[in-house]
Amino acid sequence: MSTVEEKLAELGLTLPDVVPPIAAYQPAVRSGAYVYTAGQLPMVQGSISETGKVGAEVSPETAKELARICALNALAAVKSVIGDLDRIERVVKVVGFVASAPDFTGQPGVLNGASELLGEVLGDRGVHARSAVGVTVLPLDAPVEVEILVEVRD
Known about the structure:
Elements: H1 3-10, E1 28-31, E2 34-37, E3 43-44, E4 47-48, H2 60-82, E5 88-99, H3 107-122, E6 129-135, E7 144-152
Parallel strand pairs: 5-6
Antiparallel strand pairs: 1-2, 2-7, 3-4, 5-7
């Protein structure tokens, strides 16, 4: 087990299986020293645990936990390409989308769920740039979607 996965275990988390694509794309691809993930939904064992808009049907606190699940799924996608999460040099960028009620403006707080998980698991290697974007709707009526860009070493 890698030290990243040991850290996940210390946090009471396990790396899930890679979420199968719901359309024509790959969960992650490598180009040179970088791995780009597709947008990861808060899928747990093949289904989304919550649906709806943040600030309406979904609370910001629940959405923050869902963003955490998205980040965990993103790490699983990265591992599927590089084999060992200890090869992550750093998380470069996180992009998060929040399906938001019209008056909801707390997208950055929701995306902290993903950012904080990456920091807890990877330490300084998890510090990244980030965009938090409010949108009208996401695939499968998911409240949150997260993609990451990581630099890896051979």
